[in-house]
Amino acid sequence: MKYFPFAGLRRMVGWLALAGLAAGCTTHSKTAKVNYEFFPAPPDVPHLQFLTGFSSETELGANLHRSFLMYLTGQKPRPKEISKPYGVAAHNHKLYICDTDYGAVLVMDLKTKSATVFMAQGQGVLKVPLNIAIDDDENFYVADSGRDQVVVFDKDQNYVAAIGKLGEMKPRDVAVDKNRIYVADFQNHNVHVLDKATRKPLFDIPHGPDATNAPRRLYSPTNLALDSKGRIYVSDTGAFHVQVYDTDGNYLRSVGSMGDSLGQFARVKGIAVDRDFRVYAVDAMSQVVQIFNEEGKLLTWFAEPGMSGDMKVLPAKVMVDYEDVDFYQQFVAPNFKLEYLVLVMNQIGPHMVSVYGFGHEK
């Protein structure tokens, strides 16, 4: 595993200061020379590039001027905008974004550059959707903090079932693999593991001595990630670190600690794992995404507030996307080889979705 250097151990940016963020933002005219933004900054070798950001289907590239509705009514349709996003999942070149303001899932189609709203009705109605997962059969699992349930839909977005009874749990995230469903339960301080076919409980994480052992237990589990080895990653916001467990729920290690320096967290939220087992973790306070290696050692960080391009504010979620690289090639610097995408969801600011590219110099 390569170590990604950075120029000195600079202190992380402190708590949110909107005035400071605004002062750090620069604008560019349409005729200005393109300024590509890389992380780490020169003279270190770059590994990530800020590509673009968007908050509506118009910014995604939708053409609303020639729609059939406009032809009939003579009125330009109003573009669908992202209001307050949290969780996101990608499937079949579409982004499924949980929007807590709308109480719905916004579907951004990268092929057609358009948006639709996945707004369930009846038994499947959503209230405060936080996170979403999609399995290999294209079933949707939505962790809804308003219902305090995980709501399951089939590939046609029809309601299937709800996991959890009234007062039983407070789900904050859901993850799925071939055989299991994982639910981060804020109320019971654990992760429920269920059989995917029957949706029946198998066991909880942590269990046994780990459930009460301070370094190994969970306090405020909020976000989940899985890797190809079957390991479960849990961001524990209240304990200021990410906990890693094996496929049987046994504790492996902790990543990060409390603080506002490199390798530490003040309010860790969204997490993701790439194919090389690098861990990406969002800190909503410092507003930086840090990258750790498989053993939990800090490699680098990116997306500091005040950088010119991304203007990331209150980040909540991070996602790694290997399937949609082609849609963003137009933003890639000529001397940079793009390997995959890293998307960061922001709850406020000019870019609700910030898109970064992970790669290397040619």
Describe what is shown at a glance.
By secondary structure, this protein is mainly beta.
Task: Compile the SSE list and pairings.
Blueprint: H1 18-24, E1 37-39, E2 48-54, H2 57-60, H3 68-73, E3 85-91, E4 94-99, E5 104-109, E6 114-118, E7 129-134, E8 140-144, E9 149-153, E10 159-163, E11 171-176, E12 180-185, E13 190-195, E14 201-205, E15 221-226, E16 232-236, E17 241-245, E18 251-255, E19 257-258, E20 264-265, E21 268-273, E22 279-283, E23 288-292, E24 298-302, E25 313-321, E26 336-348, E27 353-361
Parallel strand pairs: 19-20
Antiparallel strand pairs: 1-2, 2-27, 3-4, 4-5, 5-6, 7-8, 8-9, 9-10, 11-12, 12-13, 13-14, 15-16, 16-17, 17-18, 21-22, 22-23, 23-24, 25-26, 26-27
Give me the count of strands.
27
**Total number of helical segments?**
3
Number of domains: 1
Q: Please summarize the sheet with the most strands.
A: 5 strands, antiparallel
Distance between the termini: 20 Å
| CATH topology title | Neuraminidase
Given as residue ranges, the uncertain stretches (5+ residues, pLDDT < 50) are 1-32, 64-77
Highest-level CATH class: Mainly Beta
Q: Categorize the overall geometry.
A: globular
The average pLDDT value, as a whole number, equals 86
Rg over alpha carbons: 20 Å
> If classified by CATH, what would the architecture be?
6 Propeller
Binned, the helix content reads: under 10%
What is the string of SSEs from the N terminus onward?
A: HEEHHEEEEEEEEEEEEEEEEEEEEEEEEE
CATH superfamily: TolB, C-terminal domain
Secondary structural class: mainly beta
Task: Record the strand order, biggest sheet.
Answer: 1-2-27-26-25
Percent strand equals 35-45%
